[in-house]
Design a protein that fits this description.
It is a single chain. Helix content is 58%, strand content 14%. It has a 5-stranded parallel beta sheet, with helices on both faces. By secondary structure, the chain is α/β, with parallel strands linked by helices. It is globular. The N and C termini lie far apart (46 Å).
Length: 189
């Protein structure tokens, strides 16, 4: 089992190393700048995804609201997957594809940032959320994998992790999120 564990760790390291290429680094920097600008001008960050991506949305929102590495003011961030009453009511009344779009239409303001998370880039409710965000004049950022699916082409900034293994993509997503949080905190100091 230890040799299998070592192989899985090597796969994760290899996936993380792909983020050091120029294109991912530029996208990470651009995402941090967009979020910093929004927060500086009184706007908020709204995050959404399904399953593990929903957990990542919650994790990232908590880093902004609490603190990541530096003591600072709380930064407004909302994970749209956290309100189970809203999720289930919207899914029941409007369909599961509308669970994020409907919340964005009620909570977002022009100038806010929407962060859509989908390892496949094909989740219908995430794509509907991005469409609503664009209608509302939000800046849009995606964390996705494989080739980005439809999601990568639907947003302003696509942070695409290569490969098709969901676990490796999610591990990279949280690394990207931590780097972005750190860059935003540094910029707001």
């Amino acid at each position: 089992m230890s040799s299998d564990a070592a192989e899985l760790i090597r796969e994760s390291i290899a996936a993380h190393e792909t983020l050091l290429a120029d294109e991912p680094l530029a996208a990470i920097g651009e995402a941090a700048a967009v979020i910093t600008n929004a927060l500086r001008t009184g706007h908020k960050v709204l995050l959404f995804g399904n399953g593990g991506s929903a957990s990542d949305a919650t994790h990232i929102a908590a880093e902004f609201l609490g603190r990541f590495q530096r003591e600072r003011r709380p930064l407004p961030a909302i994970a749209l997957s956290d309100n189970t009453s809203a999720l289930t009511a919207i899914a029941n009344d409007y369909g599961f594809e509308q669970v994020f779009a409907r919340q964005l239409r009620g909570l977002a303001s022009p100038g806010d940032v929407a962060i859509a998370i989908s390892t496949s880039g094909r989740s219908a409710n995430v794509l509907e959320g991005v469409a609503a965000a664009r209608e509302l004049d939000l800046r849009t950022i995606a964390l996705t994998g494989a080739h980005g699916g439809e999601l990568a082409g639907a947003v302003d900034i696509a942070l695409v992790v290569g490969g098709s293994t969901t676990a490796r993509i999610q591990e990279c997503h949280i690394l990207i999120a931590h780097v972005v949080c750190d860059l935003v905190e540094r910029a707001l100091e």
